[in-house]
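#help-structures
NK: newbie question, is this the right format to request a structure? protein is Phospholipid-transporting ATPase 1-like
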Amino acid sequence: MDIIQWNWVFYAVIWGSIGATSICVMILNAIPMFVGSWAIFNMTVEGSFWVCSLGIIIAALLPRLDGIQIAREAEKFGCNVLN
């Protein structure tokens, strides 16, 4: 899916899904009958957890740099890269 123009709906969907997933993980980890309960609360004190989480979010939100995207960007600036 190529998003040509970002608006508030896309931001709400992306950040809402990240927030909902985080809340669900915390709720499931707080129930003692599940295996690994409280694991997320023990992991969040580690710095590597936050660095990896931030890296995953940044990598997921970076634009794809395939040939079509590069050609579109070049077209914006008046360059003809196809000839």
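mod (FA): yep, format's fine, and the tokens are attached above. The first helix runs from residue 8 to 30.
NK: thank you!
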